[in-house]
Specification:
Largest sheet of chain B: 6 strands, mixed
Largest sheet of chain A: 5 strands, parallel
Distance between the termini of chain B: 65 Å
Strand content of chain A: 5-15%
Oligomer: heterodimer
Strand order of the largest sheet of chain A: 3-6-9-2-10
Structural class of chain B: alpha/beta
Shape of chain B: flat
Helix content of chain B: 40-55%
Number of strands of chain B: 9
Number of strands of chain A: 10
CATH superfamily of the largest domain in chain A: P-loop containing nucleotide triphosphate hydrolases
CATH topology of the largest domain in chain B: Rossmann fold
Strand content of chain B: 5-15%
Number of domains of chain A: 2
Number of helices of chain B: 16
C-alpha cells in the first residue's frame, strides 16, 4: 500500500485551524497534459483497439464510442471469460490513459473505494510529536493532511480526470448500498474529504463497469449507464482473436483450436470455456510443439480450457467428436 | 458535427417513436435513455440503420433478457411496414438497405444455443406434461389463517455466516485503529485501551426447491406458504418449483398480500401435477441459478418424494454438485413417516449420500417445525 502525495495544500493559518482546512475549497484537477485525441468515429476507435490486440465488433465499438462521446459509463455484461475486463485495459492503452481499477467484492465500502487515512502512520506520528517537541498547534492539520491520505481507486480516477479509464470490475459482487454510493459518485465525479476539501474532475474519466450477472443490478444504476452484452465470439472472430493475442500459434492450429472450443461450448457444461481459455489452450498446445489437435497433446492440456472435474470427464468421453476433423 | 445534428433533428420524431415502441413492448425505457440515444446518434450517422440499431441497444436496453424484445421491436419499427420511410433522407441520398443493416446483429446468439431451454427439456420428458394452471390461491380458510399466524409472530432465520464487514465489539479480535486514533487525539495519548471490531454476521440465503408433481403438490403448497413466511424474515429466500421443468417463483412471492402472492406463484408454474424429473430440474437450477454468487453457501431445502422418472445418475451428479455449492442440503420427504424409513426409490437412493439432513413429511404439518430445523442448523 503506497501513499501517494497530493500536491501541497496551503495550510490554513493558525487562527483558522478551528475550521479544519477549508471545507468549501474545490480542487479542480487540471487536465492540460498532452494525450492522444479521443477517437472521432467508431471505425477509428475500433482500429485503435485493434492496435492493442482487442478486436471489438461493431456493437461493442459503437457502445464504447458512445460512452466516450456522451460521457456516460459503460456497463458490460456477458459470460465469464469473454473479455469484459480486457475492454477497459485495451481502451486505456488505446487512449493513452491510465487504467484505474476498482475490484469489487462482497462487503466493499466507500473507504476502500475512495480514500482512507493511514491510521498506523498517524498514530506513530502522534507518538513522535509527543516524544520530540511540544505539540504544535497545527499538528491536527498535518495529521489529517495529504501526507497521510491513502488514495483508493475512485479518488485516483477523479484526480486523473479524463487521463484515466476507470474500471469498476464485477460490480455485481458488491452490495446494493455500495451500488447506491457508486451511483452518486458516477453522476458528479467529485469526492469530498472533509479535512481537505472537495476534489472534482473537470472532465470525467471514461468509466467501464463489468458484471457477471450474479445478481440483478439496480435499475437506477443501469439507467445511468450504456449497456452492452458481450457474447462468445463467432468461430472466425475467435480465430482472428487468437491471431492477435497469441501470434506465436500457427494459423492452422489456431483454427483447429477455435473450432474445438466452439464444439465444446455446445456441450452441456458447468462452465463453458471463455475466450481467455481458448487463448491459453492454443498457447499451451503451441508450446508443446503440436501442429494439430493430437489426442495426447490435447489430453495433457485440456486443463487449460476446462476447469471443472465433471466437465473434464464429460469432454474426455466426447473427445472423438470434439476433435472431429483431426 | 452539424450535418449529423441536422440528420438527428430530421429523424428525431422517429427516434422518439422508437422509444415509445419499446415501452409498448414492455421494456423499461426512461426519458433520459431516449435522450442519450438521440444525443449519441448525433455523434454517429443517424441515417445508417446499423448505427441506430447498436446505439439503441447500448442506450435503451439495460438487461440481457430484454435484448430479444429489443430486436423484435427494432425489426417491427424500422424494418416492418411502418418503419423505413421515417429514415429515408429527404435530400435524395440512397435509402438504407434495411436488411443489410443487421446481419451480425440479429443472428442467433451462440451463447443461447448452448443451453437447452426449458421447452426442450419439457418435451423430452417421458411423462406427458399437464399444461394447466392449478388454482393455487384456493387455500382453505385454515391455510390462510396459518399464513396469518406465521406472518404475525414467526420470524424464521437461517444459520448465520460471517461477512467481510465489521462492527464494534468488546470481544472482537481486530483492533479498530480509526477509533483508537480518535481516542488518542482526544485524550492526549493517555488512553491505552484499544477499541476492537469483529466480523458482522448475516443470515445465509435459503433456497427452496419444491416438487409440484402429482404426488407432491399439497406438500409443496404448504412449503410455499412457508417460503412466503420466511421471506418476511431476515434471510434472503429463493423459491423454485419443479415437475418436468424448473420455474422460479420468488418474484411472484414477493407480494404483500399472501393471497395475491400465492395466486401469482400458481400462475407461474406450468406443470402442476405432471411427471417428475428431479435430476434434470436440479441441473437446470445449478446451470442457471446456483452459480450466481448470492446462492453460494446457502441452505437448500429440497421437498420431493424422490420418485424420479429420469436417470438417477443425473440426479446423483446434480446433488453432488449442489452439496458442494450449498452450506447445507435438507431433503424433506413426506414418505419418510418414521425412523425406520429406508429410502426405497432409485431417486432417493441416488440423492441421499449428498443430503445433510433428511426430514420427514410430518414436520410439514407444522410449518414452524421446519423453521426449528433450520434454526438448529450450524
Amino acid at each position: 500500500m503506497s501513499v501517494q502525495r497530493l500536491p501541497h495544500h496551503p495550510r490554513p493559518r493558525v487562527g483558522e485551524t478551528a475550521v479544519l482546512a477549508g471545507l468549501s475549497k474545490t480542487d479542480v484537477v487540471s487536465t492540460a497534459e498532452r494525450m492522444p485525441a479521443r477517437p472521432q468515429s467508431v471505425e477509428e476507435l475500433s482500429t485503435r483497439l485493434g492496435e492493442q490486440a482487442y478486436l471489438a465488433d461493431r456493437g461493442l465499438g459503437t457502445a464504447i464510442f458512445l460512452s466516450l462521446s456522451l460521457g456516460q459509463p459503460l456497463l458490460l455484461e456477458g459470460e465469464a471469460g469473454v473479455g469484459k475486463t480486457e475492454v477497459a485495459k485495451s481502451l486505456a492503452a488505446a487512449l493513452g490513459a491510465e487504467l484505474v481499477r476498482l475490484q469489487c467484492y462482497e462487503g466493499i465500502d466507500a473507504h476502500q473505494a475512495l480514500y482512507e487515512w493511514d491510521y498506523t502512520r498517524q498514530l506513530l506520528y502522534i507518538r513522535l510529536l509527543q516524544e520530540g517537541r511540544e505539540l504544535r498547534e497545527d499538528a491536527a492539520d498535518e495529521i489529517f493532511g495529504p501526507r497521510f491520505l491513502v488514495e483508493r481507486p475512485l479518488l485516483q480516477a477523479v484526480r486523473a480526470g479524463d487521463r484515466a479509464v476507470l474500471l469498476i470490475d464485477e460490480i455485481d459482487r458488491a452490495d446494493d448500498e455500495f451500488e447506491a454510493f457508486l451511483l452518486e459518485m458516477l453522476s458528479d465525479f467529485q469526492v469530498t474529504v472533509p479535512e481537505l476539501g472537495t476534489i472534482r474532475a473537470e472532465r470525467p474519466p471514461a468509466v467501464v463497469l463489468t458484471s457477471n450477472r450474479t445478481r440483478e443490478l439496480h435499475d437506477a444504476l443501469k439507467r445511468r449507464c450504456l449497456y452492452h452484452w458481450i457474447d462468445y465470439p463467432s468461430l472466425d472472430r475467435e480465430v482472428e482473436i487468437l491471431a492477435a493475442r497469441a501470434p506465436t500459434v500457427p494459423a492452422d492450429l489456431a483454427r483447429r483450436v477455435a473450432a474445438a472450443v466452439d464444439r465444446i461450448r455446445t456441450l452441456d457444461l458447468v462452465k463453458a470455456p471463455g475466450v481467455a481459455e481458448t487463448i491459453e489452450w492454443a498457447k499451451a498446445l503451441a508450446f508443446l510443439g503440436a501442429t494439430r489437435l493430437e489426442r495426447d497433446a490435447v489430453d495433457v492440456t485440456l486443463g487449460t480450457v476446462v476447469k471443472d472435474h465433471d466437465d473434464l470427464v464429460r469432454i474426455r468421453d466426447d473427445l472423438g467428436r470434439i476433435l472431429a476433423d483431426d | 458535427m452539424t450535418d449529423a445534428d441536422d440528420g438527428v433533428t430530421r429523424v428525431l420524431p422517429a427516434l422518439a417513436g422508437f422509444g415509445r415502441e419499446l415501452r409498448a413492448a414492455g421494456l423499461p425505457v426512461g426519458t433520459g435513455q431516449v435522450l442519450s440515444f438521440c444525443q449519441g446518434l448525433a455523434h454517429l450517422d443517424p441515417t445508417d440503420l446499423r448505427d441506430i440499431y447498436w446505439s439503441g441497444r447500448a442506450c435503451l436496453v439495460s438487461r440481457h433478457d430484454d435484448l430479444a424484445a429489443y430486436d423484435n421491436a427494432f425489426a417491427h419499427y424500422f424494418l416492418g411496414d411502418a418503419g423505413p420511410r421515417h429514415l429515408v433522407p429527404s435530400d435524395g441520398s440512397p435509402p438504407v438497405d434495411a436488411h443489410q443493416a443487421r446481419p451480425d446483429a440479429l443472428a442467433p446468439a451462440t451463447g443461447s444455443e448452448r443451453r437447452p431451454d426449458a421447452e426442450s427439456v419439457g418435451q423430452s420428458a417421458s411423462e406427458v406434461e399437464l399444461l394447466r394452471d392449478k388454482d393455487f390461491a384456493d387455500c382453505d380458510p385454515d391455510e390462510l389463517a396459518a399464513i396469518g399466524r406465521l406472518m404475525a409472530g414467526l420470524v424464521i432465520a437461517t444459520p448465520k455466516r460471517k461477512t467481510r464487514r465489521t462492527e464494534r465489539s468488546r470481544k472482537g479480535v481486530r483492533p479498530d485503529l480509526r477509533r483508537a486514533l480518535r481516542t488518542q487525539v482526544r485524550r492526549g495519548g493517555a488512553d491505552l485501551r484499544i477499541p476492537r471490531r469483529r466480523a458482522r454476521v448475516r443470515a445465509r440465503p435459503l433456497v427452496l426447491l419444491l416438487d409440484v408433481s402429482g404426488s407432491m403438490s399439497s406438500y409443496s403448497r404448504a412449503l410455499l406458504q412457508f417460503a412466503y413466511a420466511v421471506a418476511r424474515g431476515p434471510s434472503r429466500v429463493e423459491v423454485f418449483c419443479f415437475g418436468t421443468r424448473l420455474t422460479r417463483v420468488s418474484g411472484a412471492l414477493a407480494r404483500r398480500d399472501p393471497d395475491e402472492a400465492l395466486r401469482r406463484a400458481a400462475e407461474t408454474v406450468v406443470d402442476w401435477q405432471g411427471g417428475t424429473r428431479i435430476g434434470e430440474s436440479m441441473r437446470e437450477y445449478l446451470r442457471t441459478w446456483a452459480w450466481r454468487g448470492g446462492f453460494r453457501g446457502g441452505v437448500v431445502v429440497v421437498c420431493s418424494d424422490g420418485l424420479e422418472r429420469g436417470d438417477p445418475d443425473v440426479l446423483a451428479a446434480a446433488m453432488a454438485r449442489l452439496s458442494r455449492l450449498a452450506h447445507r442440503v435438507i431433503w424433506v420427504n413426506p414418505l419418510k413417516a418414521g425412523p425406520e424409513y429406508a429410502p426405497a426409490t432409485r431417486g432417493m437412493r441416488a440423492a441421499l449420500p449428498h443430503v445433510d439432513l433428511l426430514v420427514s413429511g410430518h414436520n410439514l404439518a407444522n410449518l414452524a417445525g421446519l423453521g426449528a430445523v433450520l434454526e438448529a442448523l450450524d
